[in-house]
């Protein structure tokens, strides 16, 4: 029997709203006289019984009609009709057919169908059978026959719970999957709340429980119930393996107990053979066959088990040359069921088969059990054999632990090395050595992209000497998922502790501290971290990067840029993705956006080819940002979306915040306000608590740019003003200058600029931007500076400034920025009543926006072009003809602004007209549309 697994109260089932809705639909049809059938299938612990109990309780609470319910008894599986006997015995009253007679004489499928219809003739009948896969074959066949024939007008519904749908072909089936992350977290909250420890669960412990349970509610409840309050609070390291899974594992194993002995041996070999493989990789089919032959299994048993799905009751599945278990818990259950002696013998056999002949004695030809070889081995090629020997070890073994550590090196993947080091730690007798190996395992686990598991391994280190490297791993984990200030301090501490005996990892810590300072926007802290990096003749590119960045931030721009250009050139020949990413940063600082794109693309290729997986989100983030700077918004969005998925998969929410900011900037060009706000809000939600100044600056800039595209220049200027001007809310030191052109445009259009008068913050921002332009090779900077000066220029000088800006754009390329200048120039010409001249740049702007996919800006350019007297096809309304079709282009623009809630003055600022002009056009709009208020106008436009 599968007991109630989701919650201990009938009030709520977590994560099963869809399944409950399907059951409610079935019961609703039953109340109206229509029957049906549904098979709920699930692995043990997924809540199948809880759903059946809920259906039965709902039927009884409504007093709809009688209920027949039963649960299979494994001991009666070979007794014909025992299942139906138990079901009929649950009837609330006498039956036309005695249950004892059914058990004695049997019942045909047709007789059962007639009986059920008779029972449901007066009031709707619900039949509930749990663990039906454990019924005797005769009962199961009769019930399936009857259930297939229950439909409209039958007044009988059958709900069946089973491990799989194999025996219930032809019936509607619903397979329960694991709980999603949110539902599992909510269930854990409920469990710990009931235990009085809801507010005391350590985040690392919480993550390990959720990870180990893998969405299985019964397993999650069992694991949490076996931990003490000190375990839950993180005051004591978690036991390993976590206790509490026995019940679920026994339920899985019970389904395999009826298989032949040879098949169970093959399952044990397959389960043991996965111990040295990366998670999810399955088992090498060739190794499994060799092991099976060595264990004495005959060819017939192997063919039956490996070539037919039913040979192992669905436990094993073949995929090419690999063999996989149907679920990880099935594999664990097989190992759990075997005796320790038998498991060690199997691991010993596999170790022999995996070890070259000259390294260990040959494999024993006789069946299990047999002694395992004990000669230590080393080298990465022998790592699988050593892992199997570690599994076969009966207790601590320092020689084997040393061999495992020696073999856990490249070219083995980080996940394999982490698993080997964790096993080596478990075999180590010296406490300090054990702690160091757990810390090393945590570092490789982090590099493999499993942040949660890395934290769990660090928890096993405990309060150990700091030179074990745990500080470094904690700091690097905090860099991707924690306050940037905490990461900065932790990494500086790690660097100081590691420097005397491990210079390479001390360098990693200092570089990490510099990255944390950059993320939090602290230029002084960034400089401090860089100056701690020692000069090294072995890595001249790093020295050039260090000296170049320090020189730029200290005002020696020419010297710094020369060093950074040499750094970009040096790193261009590298293959290390971390080195390539540094080269990309150097390229952006000097304004070489094409070079930054090349470095980012090469870094991404290097990570995909050789890892580490933990660096994939950063590679995608750097490349997406570089492409954004280069005006390749579609490519930036594609890479940022992939990076966002990678960041979530590898547990890096800080990187996800930066990627959301990149996506917000891309959306401010392509998708408009709504999509931009979604990503910007996500970026700011993570940037605020963790102090990510760069992500916050980029997100705010994106929101302002979306406001500009929508004509909300006042809101855009208000967002950018604190980022650009001096003060506590000033933007990130490396990105705030990029927002100045938007700030100037928004301020001028909103009427907030004094056009060059002394003390004007807009003029001051332009002056600072002019200095920055002389220090960067960003190809767009000269054109943007000329555009800013055009916006602030007197009427007599503005046209010349715009022409200067367009000439710079012609040399620099980049459709989007070029089109923005053309849009502003055309709008300026139109406001000067030079409409014929205005149409050229406005038309060019519209075409350029369409070419680069800047949908958010197309509408603004179209509106300006219509206002200049040129017919432009408006986007078709989704619900029919456009109600504004009867209005002039200027009236349409005013009507849309008013419908959005803008006042006359705000409309005048947006459209660069007087309030009297707005008032005049608005009266005509009301008359043409037959409305009498702004509210009615908004209703007509569907706003």
Descriptive terms for the model:
disordered N terminus, 46 helices
What is this structure's SSE topology?
Blueprint: H1 17-31, E1 36-41, H2 48-61, E2 67-71, H3 82-89, H4 99-105, H5 109-119, E3 125-130, H6 137-148, E4 156-162, E5 173-175, H7 181-194, H8 203-213, H9 217-225, H10 229-232, H11 246-254, H12 261-273, E6 283-284, H13 285-294, H14 299-307, E7 316-319, E8 322-325, H15 328-337, H16 340-354, H17 383-392, H18 398-407, H19 414-427, H20 431-447, H21 451-461, H22 470-480, H23 484-498, H24 503-519, H25 523-531, H26 540-553, H27 557-571, H28 577-590, H29 593-610, H30 616-629, H31 633-649, H32 653-670, H33 673-690, H34 693-709, H35 713-724, H36 740-749, H37 761-775, H38 781-792, H39 795-812, H40 815-831, H41 835-851, H42 855-867, H43 889-899, H44 904-911, H45 915-929, H46 934-940
Parallel strand pairs: 1-4, 1-5, 2-3, 3-4
Antiparallel strand pairs: 6-8, 7-8
Helix pairs in contact: 1-2, 3-4, 5-6, 7-9, 8-9, 8-21, 11-15, 12-13, 12-15, 12-16, 13-16, 16-17, 17-18, 17-19, 18-19, 19-20, 20-21, 20-22, 21-22, 22-23, 22-24, 23-24, 24-25, 25-26, 26-27, 26-28, 27-28, 28-29, 28-30, 29-30, 30-31, 30-32, 31-32, 32-33, 32-34, 33-34, 34-35, 34-36, 35-36, 36-37, ...
């Amino acid at each position: 029997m599968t007991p109630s697994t989701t919650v201990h109260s009938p009030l709520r089932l977590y994560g099963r709203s869809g399944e409950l809705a399907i059951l409610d639909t079935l019961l609703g049809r039953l109340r109206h006289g229509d029957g049906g059938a549904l098979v709920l299938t699930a692995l043990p612990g997924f809540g199948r019984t809880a759903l059946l109990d809920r259906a039965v309780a709902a039927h009884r609470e409504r007093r709809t009609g009688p209920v027949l319910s039963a649960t299979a008894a494994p001991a009666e599986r070979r007794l014909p009709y025992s299942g139906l006997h138990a079901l009929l015995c649950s009837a609330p009253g006498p039956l036309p057919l005695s249950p004892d007679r059914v058990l004695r004489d049997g019942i045909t499928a047709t007789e059962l169908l007639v009986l059920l219809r008779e029972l449901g003739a007066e009031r709707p009948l619900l039949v509930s059978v749990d663990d039906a896969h454990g019924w005797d074959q005769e009962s199961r066949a009769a019930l399936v026959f009857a259930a297939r024939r229950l439909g409209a007008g039958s007044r009988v519904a059958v709900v069946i719970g089973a491990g799989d749908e194999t025996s219930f072909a032809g019936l509607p089936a619903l397979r329960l999957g694991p709980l999603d992350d949110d539902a599992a977290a909510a269930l854990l909250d409920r469990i710990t709340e009931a235990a009085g420890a809801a507010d005391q669960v350590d985040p690392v412990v919480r993550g390990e429980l959720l990870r180990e349970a893998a969405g299985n509610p019964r397993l999650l409840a069992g694991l949490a119930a076996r931990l003490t309050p000190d375990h839950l609070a993180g005051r004591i390291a978690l036991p390993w393996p976590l206790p509490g899974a026995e019940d679920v594992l026994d339920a899985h194993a019970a389904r395999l107990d009826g298989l032949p002995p040879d098949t169970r041996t093959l399952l044990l070999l397959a389960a043991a053979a996965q111990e040295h493989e990366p998670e999810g990789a399955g088992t090498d089919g060739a190794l499994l066959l060799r092991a099976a032959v060595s264990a004495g299994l005959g060819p017939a048993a192997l063919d039956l088990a490996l070539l037919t799905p039913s040979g192992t009751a669905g436990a094993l599945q073949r995929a090419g040359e690999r063999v996989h278990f149907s679920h990880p818990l099935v594999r664990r259950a097989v190992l759990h069921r075997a005796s320790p002696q038998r498991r060690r013998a199997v691991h010993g056999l596999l170790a022999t088969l995996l070890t070259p002949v000259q390294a260990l004695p040959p494999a024993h030809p006789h069946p299990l059990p047999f002694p395992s070889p004990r000669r230590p081995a080393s080298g990465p090629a022998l790592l699988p054999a050593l892992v199997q020997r570690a599994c076969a070890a009966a207790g601590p073994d320092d020689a084997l632990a040393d061999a495992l550590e020696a073999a856990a090196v490249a070219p083995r993947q980080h996940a394999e090395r982490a698993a080997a080091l964790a096993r080596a730690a478990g075999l180590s007798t010296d406490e300090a050595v054990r702690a160091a190996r757990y810390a090393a395992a945590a570092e490789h686990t982090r590099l493999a992209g499993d942040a949660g598991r890395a934290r769990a391994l660090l928890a096993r280190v405990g309060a150990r000497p700091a030179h074990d490297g745990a500080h470094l791993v904690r700091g690097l984990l905090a860099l991707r998922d924690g306050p940037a200030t905490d990461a900065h301090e932790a990494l500086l501490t790690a660097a100081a502790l590691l420097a005397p005996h491990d210079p390479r990892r001390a360098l990693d810590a200092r570089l990490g501290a510099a990255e944390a300072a950059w993320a939090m926007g602290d230029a002084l802290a960034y400089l401090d971290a860089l100056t701690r990096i020692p000069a090294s003749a072995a890595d001249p590119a790093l020295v050039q990067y260090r000296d170049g960045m320090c020189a730029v931030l200290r005002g020696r721009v020419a010297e710094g840029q020369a060093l950074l250009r040499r750094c970009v050139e040096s790193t261009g020949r590298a293959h290390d993705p971390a080195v390539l990413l540094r080269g990309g940063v150097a390229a952006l600082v000097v304004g070489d956006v094409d070079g930054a794109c090349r470095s980012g693309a090469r870094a991404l290729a290097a990570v995909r080819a050789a890892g580490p997986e933990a660096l994939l989100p950063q590679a995608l983030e750097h490349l997406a940002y570089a492409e954004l700077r280069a005006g390749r918004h579609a490519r930036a969005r594609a890479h940022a979306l992939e990076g966002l998925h990678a960041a979530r998969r590898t547990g890096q929410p800080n990187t996800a915040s930066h990627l959301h900011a990149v996506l917000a900037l891309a959306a401010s060009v392509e998708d408009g306000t709504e999509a931009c706000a979604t990503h910007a809000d996500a970026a700011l939600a993570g940037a605020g608590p963790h102090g990510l100044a760069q992500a916050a600056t980029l997100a705010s800039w994106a929101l302002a740019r979306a406001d500009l595209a929508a004509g909300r220049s006042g809101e855009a200027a208000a967002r950018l003003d604190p980022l650009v001007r001096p003060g506590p809310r000033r933007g990130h030191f490396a990105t705030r200058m990029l927002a100045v052109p938007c700030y100037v445009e928004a301020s001028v259009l909103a009427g907030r600029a004094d056009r060059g008068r002394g003390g004007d913050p807009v003029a001051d921002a332009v002056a600072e931007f002019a200095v920055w332009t002389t220090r960067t090779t960003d190809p767009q900077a000269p054109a943007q500076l000329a555009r800013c000066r055009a916006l602030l220029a007197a009427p007599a000088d503005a046209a010349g400034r715009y022409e200067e800006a367009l000439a710079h754009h012609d040399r620099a390329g980049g459709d989007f920025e070029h089109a923005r200048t053309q849009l502003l120039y055309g709008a300026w010409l139109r406001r000067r009543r030079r409409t014929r001249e205005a149409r050229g740049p406005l038309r060019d702007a519209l075409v350029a926006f369409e070419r680069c996919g800047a949908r958010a800006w197309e509408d603004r350019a179209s509106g300006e072009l219509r206002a200049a007297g040129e017919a432009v096809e408006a986007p078709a309304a989704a619900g029919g003809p456009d109600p504004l079709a009867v209005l002039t282009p200027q009236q349409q623009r005013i009507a849309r602004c008013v419908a959005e809630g803008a006042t006359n003055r705000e409309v005048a600022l947006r459209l660069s007209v007087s309030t009297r002009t707005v008032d005049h056009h608005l009266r005509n709009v009301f008359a043409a549309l037959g409305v009498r208020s702004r509210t009615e106008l908004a209703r007509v436009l569907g706003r």
